[in-house]
Specification:
- GO terms for molecular function: cyclic-guanylate-specific phosphodiesterase activity.
- There is one protein chain.
- By secondary structure, the chain is an alpha/beta fold.
- It has 3 domains: about 40 residues, no CATH class; about 160 residues, Reverse transcriptase/Diguanylate cyclase domain (Alpha-Beta Plaits), CATH 3.30.70.270; about 250 residues, EAL domain (TIM Barrel, Alpha-Beta Barrel), CATH 3.20.20.
- Helix content is about 50%, strand content about 20%.
- The chain has 17 helices and 15 strands.
- Strands 6, 7, 8, 9, 10, 11, 12, 13, 14 and 15 form a 10-stranded mixed beta sheet that branches. A 5-stranded mixed beta sheet has the order 2-3-1-4-5, sandwiched between helices.
Length: about 475
């Protein structure tokens, strides 16, 4: 039943009520419906509240006792996918049920507390407190129980504690604060937890500003298509490009991607921005095609959130047909994280697009722990070797690893592009390994699409003169 239909039926059933009374009855009825559904909104594996009932219960608790202080503790397991791969899914589920029992204990034994199983290995608890140290004690207690749990794999939990000085804060805000605190220690094995602090609060405010500004940025054309050329290192000829987004804010000027892309990935708006840039790429290549100009591939980035986007293939096929662009001229660049969200679903979508002529490129090759498994399991047309891979060429070991990695990829028959080439030494070494195609500041920085077009036009003119 929709919100409006429920309201109309309740109001119609009480004709003698005043408008205020009707609204009060309506709200009471909705609350009763929500309360009755709470028990149905538990996760099957752990029987903890799911995120919907957790938000509802905590929201009601905070509303009824607004003068108390509330905090959220969130936890996930470092590289939980490796736990499942090493121990098996059944053992992984056994671990998750035990962790759930640790969180559930506080819901049953600590006043003003609710526990939640968000998804996979991510759990959280909301509770009232007097001093932050109370929340830190809970973290230490849960961590000790998990550490002492008899298990074949060393389990490393990470925690974030979200707090707010505001009276009656929104539960979603506390959860976001806890998540930000937890993410601040990822990769720091010497730290178990972090508490949301003033520095994070300032960052959160910047994120809110990005969220507020991004819709008008799209409407007003502030997000612009930039392209970083890909070149043949043997002669410097432009052989393609990678589409990038830049934000020219009317007051702040050029906003660095690192300040807005992570925010958009968190709130899901990156899908809108991706599709906005994709359309600009197809429109540009369609223009070249209509004008009978030389076409070069311009790859587009597909974010990890597209792992859940059932309309991904439909969108790309529509753009291809609308702008009459051969699909091989719009390679799809994905990072390993795009597959980690929904590996089977993303494999299926990519294979469907490959059948329709699109090419699939793995970006940032060599930076993820499961990259080799992905290379073995997924059909790829192109590999982009990450710039970190070629940074230490003065070391003999680095040269051996790079040389043999390139040889392996060549044997697999995939096209190779080296990212981040910045020195003549790197260029010479890579050419010696038989690798010709690259991106990097040694050749070109990212540029507005108009500048990229001028570069191509100049190259076409030079080609015509040599004919």
């Amino acid at each position: 039943m929709t919100y409006q239909k429920a309201k109309e039926e309740i109001i119609e059933s009480s004709p003698q009520k005043t408008d205020a009374g009707k609204e009060e009855l309506y709200l009471y009825s909705l609350r009763k419906m929500a309360e009755e559904n709470v028990e149905n909104n538990r996760t099957g594996l752990t029987n903890l509240h799911n995120i919907n009932s957790f938000f509802y219960l905590c929201g009601e608790m905070i509303k009824q006792q607004p003068d108390k202080k509330y905090g959220v503790i969130i936890m996930d397991i470092v590289q939980f996918k490796a736990v499942n791969e090493f121990c098996g899914r059944d053992e992984g589920d056994r671990l998750l049920r035990f962790i759930a029992s640790c969180f559930d204990w506080y819901e049953n034994n600590r006043p003003d507390s609710y526990a939640c199983h968000i998804r996979a290995d991510i759990f959280c608890i909301c509770t009232s407190y007097e001093e932050v140290e109370e929340l830190e004690i809970i973290v230490r207690e849960i961590r000790k129980k998990i550490t002492d749990f008899p298990f074949a794999y060393r389990v490393q939990p990470s925690f974030g504690i979200g707090i707010s000085p505001e009276r009656a804060p929104a539960i979603s805000y506390l959860k976001d604060c806890a998540t930000m605190a937890m993410n601040s220690i990822k990769g720091k094995v010497y730290r178990t937890y972090a508490v949301f602090d003033e520095k994070m609060r300032s960052q959160k405010m910047r994120e809110r500003q990005v969220e507020n500004d991004i819709v008008s940025a799209l409407e007003n054309g502030e997000l612009q298509l930039y392209v970083q050329p890909k070149v043949d290192m043997r002669d410097g000829r432009v052989i393609g490009g990678e589409a990038l987004v830049r934000w020219k804010h009317p007051e702040k000027g050029l906003v660095p991607p690192r300040e807005f892309i992570p925010v958009l990935e968190k709130n899901g708006f990156i899908i809108n921005v991706d599709e906005y840039i994709w359309e600009k790429v197809f429109a540009y290549l369609g223009k070249l095609h209509r004008e009978d100009r030389m076409l070069v591939p311009v790859s587009i980035n597909v974010s990890r959130l597209h792992a859940y986007d059932e309309k991904l293939a439909e969108t790309l096929i529509r753009l291809r047909e609308e702008y009459d662009v051969p699909p091989e001229y719009v390679p799809l660049e994905l990072t390993e994280s795009a597959f980690l969200e929904d590996e089977a679903g993303m494999y299926r979508r990519m294979e469907s697009l490959r059948e329709r002529g699109f090419l699939v490129s793995m970006d940032d090759f060599g930076t993820g722990y499961s990259t080799m498994n992905m290379l073995k399991n997924q059909t790829l047309d192109e590999i982009k070797i990450d710039k970190e891979f070629i940074r230490d060429l003065e070391k003999d070991k680095s040269r051996i690893i790079i040389r043999n990695t390139i040889a392996m990829l060549q044997q697999l028959g995939v096209h190779i592009v080296i990212e981040g080439v910045e020195t003549e030494e790197q260029k010479s070494f890579l050419l010696g390994c038989g690798c010709t195609d690259a991106q990097g500041f040694l050749f070109h920085r990212p540029m507005p699409v108009e500048a990229f077009d001028a570069l191509l036009l100049q190259q076409e003119c030079e080609y015509d003169r040599t004919k």
